[in-house]
């Protein structure tokens, strides 16, 4: 059995036109129900994120990391120095591990002092490298766009 999309004038073309229109309405209702369900789940997640209690130290770390430019990296020790605690590099790593806003605050831009990547989201699976490479591509594309406009 196949379904045709019901649209203007399709009623006269399709045999059993009521069946197609009913199927279209059914799919539309399912899609709207799914959309509502996803929206509710996102609201619940955001409520939980709002409840995420950050220590003053974690807030300082996340604020500094949020300022790291696109496609660039900084070391855990650099971040620790910026917040005024140069010996707290490991604590910076723990604060980033608990980052409640990974899409907004780019913790993947923080690397080890020797330049090696370390773990991202608790795993050594090259996600950090892939994200950094993508950011560098984006940065280069925008830089090339600026040169073309001049």
What features would you describe in this structure?
This protein has 150 residues and is mainly alpha-helical. It has two domains: 10-50; 56-149, Orthogonal Bundle (Arc Repressor Mutant, subunit A), CATH 1.10.10.10. The chain has six helices and two strands; from the N terminus they run αααβααβα. A two-stranded parallel ribbon has the order 1-2. α4 packs across α5 (89-97). It starts with 9 loop residues before the first helix and ends with a helix. Mean pLDDT is 78; it is low at 10-14.
In short:
The protein is 59% helix and 3% strand. By secondary structure, it is mainly α.
SSE topology:
Elements: H1 10-13, H2 17-50, H3 56-66, E1 74-75, H4 76-82, H5 89-97, E2 110-111, H6 127-149
Parallel strand pairs: 1-2
Count of individual beta strands: 2
Instruction: Note the gap between the termini.
Output: 57 Å
Q: Provide the CATH superfamily of the largest domain.
A: Winged helix-like DNA-binding domain superfamily/Winged helix DNA-binding domain
The main pleated sheet reads as: 2 strands, parallel
**Strand content bin:** under 5%
- Structural class, judged by helices and strands? mainly alpha
CATH class of the largest domain, named Mainly Alpha
| CATH fold description of the largest domain | Arc Repressor Mutant, subunit A
**Cα gyration radius (Å):** 24 Å
The chain-level mean pLDDT equals 78
Q: How many structural units, i.e. domains?
A: 2
Point out poorly predicted stretches. 10-14
CATH architecture of the largest domain, by name, is Orthogonal Bundle
- Please work out how many helical segments DSSP would assign: 6
- DSSP helix fraction: 55-70%
Major sheet: arrangement of strands: 1-2
- Helix-strand string: HHHEHHEH
Overall, the morphology is extended
């Amino acid at each position: 059995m196949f379904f045709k999309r019901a649209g203007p004038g399709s009623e006269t073309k399709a045999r059993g036109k009521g069946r197609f229109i009913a199927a279209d309405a059914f799919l539309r209702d399912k899609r709207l129900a799914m959309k509502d369900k996803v929206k509710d789940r996102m609201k619940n997640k955001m409520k939980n994120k709002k409840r995420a209690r950050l220590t003053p130290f974690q807030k300082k770390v996340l604020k500094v990391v949020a300022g790291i430019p696109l496609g660039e990296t900084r070391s855990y020790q650099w971040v620790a120095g910026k917040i005024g605690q140069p010996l707290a590099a490991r604590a910076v790593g723990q604060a980033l591990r608990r980052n409640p806003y990974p899409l907004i605050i780019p913790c993947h831009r923080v690397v080890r002092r020797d330049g090696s990547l370390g773990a991202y989201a608790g795993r050594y699976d090259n996600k950090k490298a892939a994200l950094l490479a993508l950011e560098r591509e984006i940065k280069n594309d925008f830089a090339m766009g600026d040169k073309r406009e001049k």
